[in-house]
Structure formats: structure tokens, C-alpha cells
Amino acid sequence: MVSLVIACVSCTCLALCRWLADSYRRHVFRLYNQPLQEIQFMTDGILSAAALASYITFPKGIGMMDIDIEALRSRLESLEQIRYAEVKRHFQDQSLQILLKEEKPFARVVLENQGRKEVLWVGKSGKIFRGMNLTDAASQSSPFLTGLPIQRGKEEGAYHFDCDITPIHSFLSQLEQEYPKIYSQIRYLSLQHWDPKGNARWSRIEVTAKCAQRILFSPDYWEEQFQRLDYLLKDDRVKKYFPLEHIDLRFGQEVRIRLRRTEE
User: By CB count within 10 A, which of 50, 53, 72, 149 is most buried?
Assistant: First the structure.
């Protein structure tokens, strides 16, 4: 009889503890599940909250605890332009903080698929993606890359270069920062004869620009080559022959040029 009473008391205490725990959880949920008041959006790139409206829009009055932050993070990271997404709840001011790290587009490629041509962007990592929120000015100033095979990724619509193109990003970034006038004239970079491993003596970068139909760079010692090119393009004796047919900067202090052919 005593054992039965003890068992009943134990069951009652256990049920009471569960009820108290559930009540506490419901109380805490109601306490923290206040309506979302604000979305704080931060990125290291060019995307805006407006550009991502379809991904980060919630029903009016949605509770903070009703937001599936993992699902939201996955949706954002499914976009080709986003490398990393972090989503946090801030209960003090009922806000949602979204932090993005983006692919930095620095060049373009033309992809031909089933007879259709599409212009895509190239990120520093070598990832190729469809750009969002890019201005017309950025589109017009970014050069095209040619001559490297484009690999198809495992996911639908995913593409990348099958080599490290960080040196090409560095080449263009340095040129843009130090010689913006020259950079603004570049239209195409041919990497057909560029060795990504840097071992081949024949390796070179071929540039097509407004000032010259063909400019050849050695893959090393860019600063010296940029200086020589800048000096050449400022020479009034050379300017009157623009666009030049050929400029070769690969031979130290010697710069080889070929004037464009004129019709007799």
C-alpha cells in the first residue's frame, strides 16, 4: 500500500514538473515571440535589401520565433552571388540581422548554351554567376575574359573556371587602382596563352583596348609593364596613331610597337 502511494506521488510530481516545464517554455516563447519590427541588412558587396526583397520579405506581424532563420540562410546562400550568409535574431529591439559576403565581380564572360549567348560575371574565386543589382556603368567598364575553358558545376546553372584565376584578378585590380585611365580602355583579356601554374616561358596575357588592338604582358612584374605602357600612351608622338596595332611589354625596358596599317 505504501509503495502504491509512493508511486502515485512520484507520477503526480513528474506530471507536475512536465506541466511546469511546458508552461515555462510557452511563457518564454510568448515573451520572445514579439512581432518583427525591423530587418537590418549588411553586405560587403553591392546587393541591397530591395534587390533581395523576394527572399527576405515576411508576413506583416510575424513573430520573431516564427522566422526560420536556417531556411532563410539557405535561401540566401543558394544565390550564386552570395558566398556566405549569417542571420541572427535581436530580441532587444525585435530586429533581424542579415550579414552577407558576396562574390566580387571583376570581369565578364560570354557563355554559349544551346545556341544562346549569355553574359555572366566572374568572381575572384573563379566562380561564374549571374549578377544582381549591378549598374550599367559597372557592366560597361568590366572587361571580358576569353580563352579559358568554362567548367559546368554539379548544380543546375553553376559554372566555374577549372584553375586559379586570382593572378588575373590581381592584375586587373592593380591596373584599375593605379592606372584607371588605362583600365577604362580595356575591353578583352585573352588567356589562351596564359599558364595558370606560371611555369611556361611562353605564358602571356593579351589585352584588347581602345588604344591598341593587341597589348602583350608578361605574367610577372606588372608594375614595371604598367609604367612603361602609361609612359608610352602619354607620348603625343604615339597618340596620333591610336589605335596601335600591337604593343609588346614583355622585354624589359624595350617596348615593341607596331602602328596600324593605313590604306594607301
Answer: 72
